[in-house]
Design brief:
Helices cover about 35% and strands about 20% of the residues. The chain is of the alpha+beta class. It folds into 3 domains: about 260 residues, 3-Layer(aba) Sandwich (Alkaline Phosphatase, subunit A), CATH 3.40.720; about 140 residues, no CATH class; about 45 residues. The strands form 5 sheets. Strands 7-6-5-8-1-9-20-2-21 form a 9-stranded mixed beta sheet, sandwiched between helices. Strands 12-13-16-15 form a 4-stranded antiparallel beta sheet. α1 crosses α2, α7 packs antiparallel against α8 and α8 packs antiparallel against α10.
Length: about 525
């Protein structure tokens, strides 16, 4: 049997599908546009309720959040009222796409896939976090000596280890954008070197520059952003476009360098647009509804002791350490705390008077955990009919929330997780997820002029509540992504159906002649072949 063709997968982390399509069509992104004209274009789906924090795990393990258990990088420690960082080992409980392919005799090359550690016994090459948007493991490679080779060959990524920074000036944004542009070029050169020097059947390279740029630079592109200023963009450029064009140049050079007959798939797993959502209002809403209670003054901690004041001073000094030194230490400390201590961030509630409480899922959605009797340490809400009735009543109240300034509804959906997903980790997930309407762009007190940073909600039951957004971002994620694939036997055109996220990895595996045992997703017929569309 002839060996399947090579498959090169280039993933633009959190790039906007709408921008890729429009700029690909008008010549702004010529390399991506050529792939779209000559290949198949498909939109990809998201995990309902968890379309930010669960995206990468759902993609590369082909399982749902109820199976892999990851919905955010901080989550509730079951059996407590504390949130803790997800432990590194939590990302290795299920077989990845590249592990499955490697075990079936295909050689792999995997570089900078977010939220992944080195895979044991991999037949091929792996690069972890040369630069990634959410660094957890530190820069490491397989084989180990490749790390020094990369540093000698291309050096470190020119952008900061952390994208977020409060209160950047326009000049600092321009510098940051230029660092991302340079980083995309270096990443492209590194990718070409890796592809040329190492044998592979399946290669995956992720560009994180689109992710960092999308969060930080969106207000230089989108007039809907409250921080957008036409004169500033005219003077300093559309920095989002600059970053995307740099990635496009790198994509074109990579595609031109691979051997003829290689199939190329370009993807973005979730999108990007202006900041939206009102998750920071939900705790106060639950307090006003009387379903959540804060600790009483008798439960408040005593005034800080001399030792606690010393600890605070030490923390301030720690944050003054240069980021390049501080971040690796922070990563080590987080891994240590997750594995051998019971540390975490307490959720500020009085469990004896709380029927539900919020857990983080991002800015665009918000998770709600029921304080169930027999599941939570001090649960007061009975399971079954009582919990169902409570969820229905709470959903009704939340659907009444409107924007206090415009009168438009704030809540799009309130989802019951157990009705969406089934799996062994279901109890790790929030019980409800509030999905906000995303038609109102939010500003930030730390971006631009600060205009639009205050969000106000009202309903007849709660009156008016408001909160100020001080998140150092002007762009945030959107559910759904895009896949573009070009190669022999792939008819060009538009794929009619939205492809579920867990189906992507099995489809890629099948293309190189492999399967994904244990996957919940299934290969999609007609996506990367001449089957019916």
């Amino acid at each position: 049997m002839p060996r399947p063709p090579k498959l090169l997968v280039l993933i633009l982390d959190a790039a906007s599908p709408e921008l890729l399509e429009s700029w690909g069509a008008d010549g702004t992104l010529p390399a991506i546009g050529a792939l779209m004209r000559d290949g198949v274009v498909a939109r990809t789906g998201a995990m309902d309720g968890f379309y930010v924090g669960s995206t990468w795990l759902s993609f590369y393990t082909a399982t749902t959040p109820a199976t892999h258990g990851i919905y955010w990088l901080d989550r509730l420690r079951v059996g407590s009222y504390r949130t803790v960082p997800v432990a590194p080992d939590d990302f290795a409980r299920h077989q990845s796409l590249w592990e499955a392919v490697s075990k079936q005799g295909r050689r792999v090359l995997v570089a900078d896939v977010p939220l992944t550690n080195l895979a044991p016994d991999l037949d091929g090459v792996q690069v972890v976090e040369w630069r990634s948007h959410d660094p957890l493991f530190g820069f490491r490679t397989r084989p180990p000596e490749l790390r020094d080779e990369i540093l000698r060959s291309v050096g470190e990524h020119p952008s900061p280890l952390s994208c977020d920074k409060q209160g950047r000036s326009v000049a600092e944004y321009r510098t940051f954008a230029d660092q991302l542009v340079a980083g995309a070029a270096v990443r492209g050169r590194l990718t070409r070197q890796l592809l040329a020097r190492h044998p592979w059947d399946l290669a995956i390279q992720v560009f994180n520059e689109s992710h960092c740029g999308g969060h930080q630079l969106w207000h230089f592109h989108d007039p809907r952003c409250p921080a957008y200023d036409a004169a500033t963009t005219a003077a300093h450029g559309d920095m989002i476009r600059d970053v995307y064009q740099a990635i496009d140049r790198a994509v074109g050079e990579i595609v031109a360098a691979v051997e003829p007959g290689t199939t190329v798939a370009l993807m973005s797993l979730h999108g990007m647009s202006y900041m939206a959502g009102t998750a920071n209002l939900l705790p106060e809403v639950l307090l006003r509804l009387g379903v959540m209670a804060r600790p009483s003054h008798r439960d408040l901690p005593p005034p800080a002791t001399a030792r606690e004041r010393l600890v605070r001073t030490a923390r301030s000094a720690y944050h003054a350490i240069p980021e390049k030194i501080r971040l690796p230490f922070y990563q080590f400390r987080q891994r240590l705390a997750s594995r051998i201590t019971d540390h975490g961030t307490p959720i500020a509630i009085d469990p004896q008077r709380t029927r539900c409480f919020t857990v983080p899922t991002g800015a665009l959605t918000c998770g709600i955990r029921l304080n169930l009797r027999g599941r939570e340490p001090a649960g007061i809400l009975d399971r079954g009919a009582a919990a169902d009735r409570f969820c229905d009543e709470l959903t009704g109240e939340l659907m009444q929330l409107t924007d206090a300034d415009t009168g438009r509804p704030l809540v799009a959906h309130v989802l019951r997780t157990a009705r969406l997903y089934h799996g062994p980790e279901l109890d790790l997930l929030p019980d409800l997820v509030v999905e906000w309407h995303l038609d109102r762009p939010n500003g930030s007190a730390t971006v631009g002029s600060g205009r639009g940073a205050t969000v106000r909600a009202r309903s007849e039951r709660i009156g008016v509540v408001e909160a100020v957004n001080d998140y150092a971002r002007s762009g945030d994620h959107r559910p759904g992504g895009i896949l573009v694939a070009r190669g022999d036997g792939i008819p060009p055109g538009r794929f009619a159906r939205t492809v579920p996220l867990p189906d992507l990895a099995p489809t890629l595996a099948r293309f190189v002649g492999c399967t994904m045992p244990g996957a919940e997703g299934r290969p999609v017929a007609g996506l990367l072949d001449a089957g019916e569309r």
